[in-house]
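Notebook, p. 212. Picked up where the previous page left off. The plan for this session was modest: take the two constructs that came back from the sequencing core last week, fold each one, and keep the raw output in the notebook itself so nobody has to go hunting through shared drives later. Recording the first one now, exactly as returned: residue sequence, then the structure token string.
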Amino acid sequence: MDGIIGCNILNTRRDGRMPSEFTSEYHVHIIVRQGEMRFSDGKQMHVSQKDDLVIWQMSNAIQDVAYSEEFEADFLIASGEFLSRFNPEMVWASKGFIFIRINPSFHLHEQSLRLMKDDFSLFRQRLDMPDSPFKEEVIGRVMQIFLYDLWTVYSSEMSQMETNDNAARIFLRFLSLVQKDCRQQRDVAYYADLLCITPKYLSQVSRSVSGLPASEWITYYATFELVSLLNDLSKTLTEVADLMNFETASHFSRYVKKLLGKSPSEYRQK
């Protein structure tokens, strides 16, 4: 992908590229304009047609992709790092992650289709602008608008998922607890105890719903909190370590190095 920005928007006919070329390195968001696309998510086959929104997350095992001869689509690709950096909200991001794993293909009705097309058009306008010191930040804000609009489109179906799927209910309750307590508690057993289940069963639920172990979700939320605190320069590193419940500066420094690849002071210098 050209440039340093971690996302791009393409059209199958204009650019001569197909969405399945990017599944191993990017999250792929597809609006089908005409024709038909078939694919497997590793569990079942899906058929997507005109005005369907298809999202292939990097963690999904997309395979057996086939396109009809007249197939055309616009598609947005985004790196995991870019999405993580500009993710505006954790709870809805987690709900959306689960919903999309279960429903990778979703039909857009008129209002939702117009909303998604407007966002794609805004991406294209901003990506086509000349390079500037703030281009990546501006496109990151467009990504945030897109994510809010996407969660709005999915909102009613995600609400039904919460009430109808027992595993999803447990998992979403787990995420809610992690969001609240991850600064102080980063042990799977702590959350399993609050949910009155065993750590083993919590990990099984997490894997069945999201494809990821419970420990990775705890780390994901803790990293989000850690970065937010480190970015707040009004707080000293000692205060950040206290808020993240580390008893020693050396333990805190090792933890930050492991998650971010830099010591706390190096991260702030950057």
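Okay, moving on. Second construct, recorded in the same format:
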Amino acid sequence: MQIDNLPPLRDVIARHGLSARRELGQNFLLDLNLTSRIARVSGPLEGITVIEVGPGPGGLTRALLAAGAERVIAIERDPRALPALAEIAAAYPGRLEVIEGDALEVDFHLLGNGKRRIIANLPYNIGTELLTRWLSLEPWPPFFESLALMFQREVAERIVAAPGSDAYGRLGVLCGWRTDARIAFNVDRNAFTPPPKVTSSVVHLVPRSTDPTIPSKSLEQVTRAAFGQRRKMVRQSLKSLGRPVDELLEAAGLRGDERAETLAIDAFLKLARAIS
């Protein structure tokens, strides 16, 4: 698929010596048809500033710009990728800003202004941590309109997991509380260079309003205690919070013999409110 006048990504990678590095969590997407599909997951991009993490040789970056994003701010840790990204910036004058650095050290809310979305094929080694940080921001709703992110399929299933499922845990509670999350589509491992060992999934998360009296830190404390001993009854696992357990159970309307993976998100919110 030809979306612009720039060279094919395989040629770009060869010319700049951009072999993927495992220590950076790199797996490059070369199919511009696929990157264009990712770019469209969150809807039309006209008038939108997109923040991208880990652009690498720029396959998704090109798709975002070709799809009409007003501006793309790309954060790249690997200096080898900067010349390739500079070529994209030259092809789309004034629309691509590249920040060299570690995404874990970036204050994302300071990037751009107006309508912003985060769309990224996240490096696997930092994807979950970045998502947790974005969904723990205060105040809420956050600066971004939505997130369209690539994860390993296993992580994607944890994001959208419902109570009672094997994948349900701390991540599912956080995502279910603060967003409407869905798996948009799966991506076969052979779409990447080099192919990872697992299938990947693109997840779309849209923030929704939540009770401002429940701090995300309180919910984090409660879910860490409950799922830290997920096979035990909550009467036992909640003891690590250092609060009278009977009072917590009463506040959440629980008997105490339930296990964490069976509790509805609302029960965790009541517990978080009780300790905040």
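Notes on construct two before I forget. The mean pLDDT is 94.
Flagging for discussion at group meeting.
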